[in-house]
UniProtKB/TrEMBL annotation:
Its EC number is 3.1.-.-. Pfam families: CRISPR_Cas2 (PF09827). InterPro entries: CRISPR_associated_Cas2, Virulence_VapD/CRISPR_Cas2. Gene3D superfamilies: 3.30.70.240. The lineage of its organism: Bacteria, Bacillati, Bacillota, Clostridia, Eubacteriales. Belongs to the CRISPR-associated endoribonuclease Cas2 protein family. NCBIfam families: cas2. Keywords: Antiviral defense, Endonuclease, Hydrolase, Magnesium, Metal-binding, Nuclease. CRISPR (clustered regularly interspaced short palindromic repeat), is an adaptive immune system that provides protection against mobile genetic elements (viruses, transposable elements and conjugative plasmids). CRISPR clusters contain sequences complementary to antecedent mobile elements and target invading nucleic acids. CRISPR clusters are transcribed and processed into CRISPR RNA (crRNA). Functions as a ssRNA-specific endoribonuclease. Involved in the integration of spacer DNA into the CRISPR cassette. One of its GO terms (molecular function) is RNA endonuclease activity. Signal peptide: none annotated. This is CRISPR-associated endoribonuclease Cas2.
Length: 109
């Protein structure tokens, strides 16, 4: 059994809001197979699947807002979706074969 622990990022109050990134967890229970497949495909554009009905994403606020805006278009009243936007110090502990989501930072000089 693989156990990993990782601090994704540290919240820095001195970083401008538009440059901050957040750990976002999306979990869902969608009744219809076709809607569920379309929803998972949509979420793949934002993050990685960590379980059958769970995605982790690291997003700036603008992309987070885009994620939220698209969700109601893909679900029905009988479906359930929960989105967690984690701020401050995110500490993830994982067991199993799914890799922890790593934030790649690119610096151009």
């Amino acid at each position: 059994m693989i156990h990993s622990t990782n601090r994704i990022f540290l919240f820095d109050e001195f970083i401008a809001e538009e440059r901050r990134k957040y750990l976002v967890v999306v979990i869902y229970d969608i009744v219809d197979n076709r809607r569920r497949a379309a929803f998972a495909k949509y979420l793949k554009g934002f993050g990685v699947r960590v379980q059958k009905s769970a995605f982790e994403c690291i997003l700036p606020d603008a992309k987070y807002q885009k994620l939220l805006k698209g969700i109601p278009k893909l679900i029905d009243k009988e479906d359930q979706v929960r989105v967690y936007k984690l701020t401050s110090n995110a500490d993830i502990r994982a067991w199993g074969t799914v890799e922890l989501l790593e934030e790649e930072e690119v610096v151009i000089l």
